[in-house]
Structures are given as structure tokens and as C-alpha cells.
Design brief:
Aldehyde Dehydrogenase, Chain A, domain 2, four-stranded parallel beta sheet, globular, seven-stranded parallel beta sheet, Aldehyde Dehydrogenase, Chain A, domain 1, 15 helices, alpha/beta, 2 domains, 16 strands
Length: 418
């Protein structure tokens, strides 16, 4: 296969499809989303069977447990894919919406219109559900997309993409509005990143190595986050039961996700009380704790945490722990070691809550809630294209609005500038 020619052809087709998608009606886009959801449920058994092939190959190749978890398609995850598509269909269509027009002294009227970005390239690892999530959000926001999943999920991604293309055809939208790169050659990624004439934005979803490569090589804007080093801080005025429940859920509900807590900070005044209950819970679920000297005295045989530990996204049953003096030390720690992804304070103290929410510089900052809620579906976005820790255009879980831009609309009646 001539990789350059192949990717270039995908780009041309995506660009042509994007022009049609920008003009598609809300009813047509919603019909397509419902059709895809129906097709995915209809092919549930087939998807699980095909996914089993990918899982078997991945296990033989020694894929890490966290990535195996991301790769697996269960009945519940397939149902969630379909539900996400339906939720996206139910969201307001932003395309074509205009702000109120403001008349200037010259007499012209100025407004802004919400428009699609165009063609979005999405590069992702392991999670085949991204194929459906990304396609759904791109379609609803009037964009075309080129998807490049990981080689470990190639058969699962192809099966889901087939459901999507069948549904697009049946509802009158261009089949090339969603295209999956069929080759697993690494060269294909490089070619995709070198097509700013066809691809408007790149979204990498995967490990730090992938995202660093995309950020370095892409010739178009990138929506990204590098690490998910998420913190839970249990404040002096925390409700103990809430704190234990949140800290346990944030770490153990699922290990291999970017919104999983990687570091627990506890105010010194509550440390003994909290760890007496929480320590055995982590031990029972085989979570390895790497803590400070003070926490080692309370918990006994744990490994002493280094700065490298505090700066690591484990994506595994490993937890960094530090006992801090107060909220100021907690926020200093987050500022030094955090990745600006998601951080939570557990407290009943309004002053401390307000300070934490205002001063912690992350894309999602929470009060009395598990970091695991930092997710497009949980935020009511239907799904997410990814999470951005950048500060321009889109930040946090990126849903429909993050996949659009605005252009100025100027209304005149023969006006000329004097």
C-alpha cells in the first residue's frame, strides 16, 4: 500500500464530506445518530465476538492490564455507546446559531455564528468505544472525521465503523463523513499529521508518548491532555464518611482511566481517623500505597513516595499519599505535581471550598465528588472527543461546543466605509 496516497485520498474524501455535513439539517443528523445506535445494538453479539479476537491477540502480546481493560467491549459498554449516541442526538444543535446582532455607529450589524471546525483527525489507543463516541460528536457538530485507532483494536474498530457507515448511507449523509484508517502502519499517523490542507484539528487520545509525538509533529491545532494526575484533598473540615467513600471510589472504581485519582492528600488533623478506615479498604482491593514518612507511621509497611511517584499517572492499583498541614500545602502540592486535569476537595467549609474551586488551576475542579465524574457523558455532553488541559478554545471534557468555532456575521444595506 502507498500510505501517503491512501491517507491523502482519505483527506480529500473527508474534506468533501465536511462541506455536506456543514449543511446537513438537525433532523438528518439526529436520524443518523439513532440509526447508528440501533445498528450497534443489533450487532452487539458480533461486536463482542470480534472484540474477543483483539483481546486474545493483545493478551498474547503482553498488553498491560490497564490497556486490556480499555480494549474490552462488554454488553454494558456497548449499551453505553448506544446510549451516548442517543444522548448526543437529544442535545441542542449549535450549528448556525447566532448571537444577538449589535448595531455599530456605522450602521452595520455584527453577530457571531457557530460553525463546524471541518475535518477532525482522531488518533486513539485501545478503546474501541471511542470510534462510536467520536463519530457521534463529530456528526452532530457538522464535522467529518478521520479515525485512527490502535492496532490492538483494529478488528473491533472496523466492526463499529461498519455499523456507522451503514447507518450514514441509510439516512442520506455522506459515508465518508466518518472514515477509519484501515492500516496499522505507524507511517499513516505521520501522514495524517502532515495534511493541514485537509485536516483542521487533531485530537490524540492515548498514552503520553502518543500525545507528545502528535504535539511535536502536527501541522494543525491539537486538542489534548498529556497526563491525568488527579488529586483528592481531604480537608480539615471534611465529612469523614463522604471523604472515605469519595477517596475509595476515585481510585478503585476503574484504574485505567485518566480521571482516576492518582494522589490522595489528607489534612493532618484527620489523617489518623481517615486512614484507619481507608487503609484496610485499599489493602483489601490490593491497592499499593506509596506515602510520605508520616503516613508510613500510621499505615506501617508501605513504600516511601518519591517526587517521581507524585508526578506519575499510574493507571494501575497504585496510589500516592501525602499528609499535609492544610489547604495551602495541598494546593501547593497540586500545583507542583498535578497535570491540570481534575482535582477534588472534600470539605464542609465553604471558605475552603470556594478557595479550592477558584485557585486550583485545572480543567475540572470539584467539591465533594469523585474525580471519576470528569467525563463527557457524566457532564451531560453525551460523550466526549477527549479531555483538554489547554487554556484556549476548549478545556476539560470536549463535547459539541468544543468541536465548533464562531465566525463573524456582518449585516449591511449598501454600507461603505468612509
Amino acid at each position: 500500500m502507498d500510505i501517503k496516497k491512501y491517507i491523502n485520498e482519505l483527506g480529500k474524501q473527508a474534506y468533501a464530506a465536511s462541506r455536506k455535513m456543514a449543511a446537513a439539517s438537525s433532523d438528518t443528523k439526529n436520524a443518523a445518530l439513532h440509526a447508528i445506535a440501533k445498528e450497534i445494538i443489533k450487532n452487539k453479539d458480533h461486536l463482542i465476538k470480534i472484540n474477543g479476537r483483539d483481546l486474545q491477540t493483545a493478551k498474547k502480546s503482553g498488553l498491560e492490564p490497564a490497556l486490556l481493560d480499555r480494549l474490552e467491549l462488554t454488553t454494558a459498554r456497548i449499551d453505553a455507546m448506544a446510549d451516548g449516541l442517543k444522548q448526543v442526538a437529544g442535545l441542542e444543535d449549535l450549528i448556525g446559531k447566532t448571537t444577538e446582532y449589535v448595531e455599530q455607529t456605522s450602521g452595520i450589524k455584527i453577530g457571531r455564528m457557530r460553525v463546524p471546525l471541518g475535518v477532525i483527525g482522531i488518533i486513539y489507543e485501545s478503546r474501541p468505544n471511542v470510534t462510536a463516541d467520536a463519530a457521534g460528536l463529530c456528526l452532530k457538530s457538522g464535522n467529518a472525521t478521520i479515525l485512527r485507532g490502535g492496532s490492538e483494536a483494529i478488528h473491533s474498530n472496523q466492526a463499529i465503523a461498519s455499523c456507522i457507515r451503514t447507518s450514514l448511507k441509510s439516512t442520506g449523509l455522506p459515508e465518508n463523513a466518518v472514515q477509519l484508517i484501515e492500516t496499522t502502519e505507524r507511517e499513516a499517523v505521520g501522514e495524517l499529521l502532515r495534511m493541514p490542507n485537509y485536516v483542521d484539528v487533531i485530537v490524540p487520545r492515548g498514552g503520553k508518548g502518543l500525545i507528545e509525538r502528535v504535539s511535536a509533529e502536527a501541522r494543525m491545532p491539537v486538542i489534548k491532555h498529556l497526563d491525568g494526575i488527579c488529586h483528592v484533598y481531604i480537608d480539615d473540615d471534611a465529612d469523614i464518611e463522604k471523604a472515605i467513600s469519595i477517596a475509595y471510589n476515585a481510585k478503585t472504581q476503574r484504574y485505567g482511566t485518566c480521571n482516576t485519582m492518582e494522589c490522595l492528600l489528607i489534612a493532618r488533623s484527620l489523617a489518623k481517623t481517615v486512614l484507619e478506615k481507608l487503609g484496610p479498604m485499599y489493602q483489601e482491593t490490593k491497592v499499593e500505597i506509596r506515602g510520605c514518612e508520616e503516613s508510613k507511621k500510621l499505615l506501617g509497611d508501605i513504600r516511601i513516595a518519591t517526587d517521581e511517584d507524585y508526578a506519575t499517572e499510574y493507571l494501575a492499583p497504585i496510589l500516592s499519599l501525602k499528609i499535609v498541614t492544610d489547604i495551602d500545602e495541598a494546593m501547593q502540592h497540586i500545583d507542583k505535581f498535578g497535570s491540570k486535569h481534575t482535582d477534588t476537595i472534600v470539605t464542609e467549609n465553604k471558605t475552603n471550598a470556594d478557595r479550592f474551586l477558584r485557585e486550583v488551576d485545572s480543567s475540572s475542579v470539584m467539591l465533594n465528588a469523585s474525580t471519576r465524574f470528569a467525563d463527557g457523558y457524566e457532564y451531560g455532553l453525551g460523550a466526549e472527543i477527549g479531555i483538554s488541559t489547554d487554556k484556549f478554545h476548549a478545556r476539560g471534557p470536549v463535547g459539541l461546543e468544543g468541536l465548533t468555532s464562531q465566525k463573524y456575521i456582518v449585516l449591511g444595506d449598501g454600507h461603505i466605509r468612509s
